Amino acid sequence: MSPAIALAFLPLVVTLLVRYRHYFRLLVRTILLRSLRDCLSGLQIEERAFSYVLTHALPGDPDHILTTLDHWSSHCEYLSHMGPVKGQILMRLVEEKAPACVLELGTYCGYSTLLIARVLSPGSRLLTVERDPRTAAVAEKLIRLAGFDERTVELIVGSSEEVIPCLRAQHQLSRTDLVLLAHRPRYYLRDLQLLEAHALLPAGATVLADHVLFPGAPRFLQYAKSCGRYRCRLHHTGILDFPAIKDGIAQLTYAGPG
Fold it and tell me: Can you say where in the cell this protein is located (predicted)?
């Protein structure tokens, strides 16, 4: 490419960098820097975060563990976890609904798991599903460090597609009053339909879905709004540490099979 042609494209490149600078910064922090640190340390980001928690958080104190994770993500390495703003929405809904059983798809590092567990009613339980064994091992240690035993929080390692059909027979889950979808948005619709097909959603059940605007779950939202079995509400938020990038949590209320 000649210098003249390169110079002609320069204003366009600068304009795009300025307009999408928040997305560019997010890309650098979540992909480039993270990959480099993974290679240098031999550890995944979740394992590095847990090491920080071990040396800075108070065992048996979920609030302090959550605050420590937030601090590490903001000042050390970006963790891509739910964060306190979305966390307040989640905890408020769990407290309002007082579910007897919660199902979380996508444990990740265990952050949202702790948010739910700390506001569960006495005698309620949480089943959380994580497909990656290495990430699940970190989450398991974090959950137990916070003081929650297996009677309150059960972590299941496996893909949601394989776990959902086995929940009734293998985990004694006949129905779930509240579901958090926090794994990969492209699987939200598939897993919602699996929950319906296996009759795990009673009438009045609440389904919460994170990241429905960024990276987005358009097919999931379209289905929820058009199938006639859900009342839908969208809680508008931003991405943690990148408020200019708009995101949201979808809140669905199941009306029954119809």
Answer: Endoplasmic reticulum
Give dist(CA 138, CA 152) in Å, integer: 18
CATH of the domain at 133: 3.40.50.150
Cα distance between residue 36 and residue 42, in whole Å: 10
Asked, for residue 69, whether it belongs to a domain, the answer is: no
Please say whether the beta carbons of 134 and 106 come within 8 A. no
Whether 3 is in a domain gets the answer no
Which domain, by its residues, includes 186? 84-254
Residue range 15-55, pLDDT digits in tens: 656 677 888 888 888 888 999 999 999 999 999 999 999 99
Reference 65, options 151, 180, 148, 153; nearest CA is 148
In-domain check, residue 122 = yes
Specify the amino acid at residue 83. Answer: G
46 assigned to some structural domain:
no
Strand order in the sheet with 125-130: 153-157, 125-130, 101-105, 178-181, 206-209, 242-254, 230-239
When divided into structural domains, the chain yields a total of 1
pLDDT in tens, 143-166: 999 999 999 999 999 999 999 999
